[in-house]
Amino acid sequence: MYKLYYMPLNFHCRAARIILLEKNIPFQIVNEPFWKRRVEFLKINPAGDLPAVTDDDGINIIGYECLVEYLDEKKIGKVLLGNNPIEKLEVRRLCMWVGKKLQKEVMENILDERVFNSLKDNSPPSTSILNAGRKNLKNHLQYFDWILGRRSFLAGDIFTVADIVLAAAISSLDYLSEINWKNYEKFKNWYSVIKSRPSFREVLEESIYNITPSAHYKDLDF
After folding, report:
1. What are phi and psi of 221, to 5 degrees?
2. CA end-to-end distance (rounded Å), the chain
3. Looking at residue 121, what is its pLDDT?
4. Rounded CA gap, 150 and 99, in Å?
């Protein structure tokens, strides 16, 4: 059975989890506090980053990007990268946007500040950093709302890993009540569709430390 080394609320981990579920691959979750740098985990991924997946052949797959590439190339489950080079370009562009730009400008300033930094060193969140992240979040949401006014899914007409990784990130922010949904109707409609997928159910059932989720977090019609 596959093993997924995982940290709740980490959106890269959530994306890997949803990819495995979308491809109907049975797997075991191993909760991994990556900042502890366990020797056993560093043997799997010397960089110490999450997520990491070990497949049935003992192959270590690092990151959700490598995971979806590996599984698509092996023709395991449904295609999630796109069906042709042009589709794949747009999927990869948007995955890069979420994994780098959204990560740096929003997730590090909100999710890390509110959750992971306190877990690592018990430090209180910085108001100035949170405010910067929330300002940046509005810009990103406006961009995604604009895109989804022109497409059925984030990268085009089909569901792809771009939808998975963005929804994974948004779900973490929504858990923390960081999104004012009334300002982004098209984006909200898209997220409602994505969170209604069976692969999303387990993510919505996660219990995250001592943090209570937003009142509408699990609601499919919110």
Report:
1. -115, 100
2. 36
3. 63
4. 22
- Distance, in Å, from the CA atom of 19 to the CA atom of 70, rounded to the nearest integer, reads 11
User: Beta-carbon neighbour count of residue 85 at 10 Å?
Assistant: 7
Identify the bridge partners of residue 32 per DSSP, sorted by sequence position: none
User: Do 101 and 172 form a contact (C-beta atoms < 8 A)?
Assistant: no
- Residue 206 above 90 pLDDT? no
Q: Is the confidence at residue 116, as pLDDT, over 90?
A: no
pTM, entire model: 0.93
The per-residue pLDDT for range 21-36, each reduced to its tens digit, is 999 999 999 999 888 8
Question: Which residues lie below 8 Å from residue 57, measured CB to CB, with a gap of 6+?
Answer: none
pLDDT at 122: 66
SS3 30: strand
| Cβ contact 80:22 at 8 Å | yes
Q: Give the Cα separation of 36 and 176 in Å (integer).
A: 24
Domains of the chain: residue spans and CATH: 2-73 (3.40.30.10), 85-204 (1.20.1050.10)
